[in-house]
Amino acid sequence: MATMSSGKAREADRSIGAILVSSGRLAIEDVERIINFQKERDLRFGDAGMQLGLLTEADIFYALSLQFDYPYLSGPGHPVSDEVVVAYRPFSAEGERLRSLRSQLQLRWFREGASRVALAVVGTRPGEGRSLLAANLAVTFAQAKERTLLIDGDLRNPRQNSLFRVENQTGLSNLLTGRMHEQVIKLVPGIPGLAVLPSGPIPPNPEELLGRASFARILEQSMSAFDVIIIDTPAITCGADVTLLARFAGAALVVARNNMTRTAELRDLVAHMQDAGVKVVGSVLVDAPFTKPAKLKKQGEAGGR
């Protein structure tokens, strides 16, 4: 099984080389080779070590996680899908963009009031990447020491159970019908502070279930136990479920996919959210050109192609 790497306070003052030597991942003589090569080529320690073939990217992530007390998953038997990239490669370019997105969300929504805990991730049509973005965002908040709950509110085509490899026999749909009283929230191994509430069995009437007062109670109880709640939603073309979920959350992050999302549909979605009293905190463009990393746009400027 994959293991979590989480540093102790003393690791913050140690160099990457010292951490790798003490963990047995690097020999002292190899550290000297890397330092000499680093000086010759004006490289960072990790880059120099990888160019010499003495270090791997996984070694660098391991050392950085200990330096910054930043949990991530490594090793065989991955308990989380490789698609949740920030769980395995938090210091990659993708991880950096996701952390930037998290910071903007903290400034625009989560830090504005004690009651602002939940955020719905919404989009216009299936395949835009809502579920994957919600999963990665939830991991980044947990890595920042926020008690985080990821709710799979897509009772039509749920995906969080497969991304986090948890059973889906019980979940949100059971709670909504009042048929479950025991704990149905699953903790994610190796990511302290992260929990997932899967969708549960797919019901024939998701819109009616989500419209019940029971979801408001579930969310209220969750808010007392978690710092951040991310809600994955179905596409708005699938039904009114997304509107209900976003209204309960109070805020929405709009997802658009490059060369898939239609501008007119995206604008209609933003207007619909605002008409429903939902604060649109921004938008994210998925599959943007590499030189244009995904980022939040100001409210009212959401767009996609």
Automatic annotation (TrEMBL):
Gene3D superfamilies: P-loop containing nucleotide triphosphate hydrolases
Transmembrane spans: none
Molecular function, one GO term: kinase activity
InterPro entries, sorted: Bact_polysacc_biosynth/exp, P-loop_NTPase, T2SS_E_N_sf, Tyr_kinase_chain_length_EpsG, Wzc-like_C
Keyword ATP-binding: yes
Keyword set includes DNA-binding: no
Keywords: ATP-binding, Kinase, Nucleotide-binding, Transferase
Coiled coil regions, renumbered to chain: none
NCBIfam families, per database record: eps_fam, EpsG
Protein's recorded name: Chain length determinant protein tyrosine kinase EpsG
Organism: Piscinibacter gummiphilus
Lineage: Bacteria, Pseudomonadati, Pseudomonadota, Betaproteobacteria, Burkholderiales
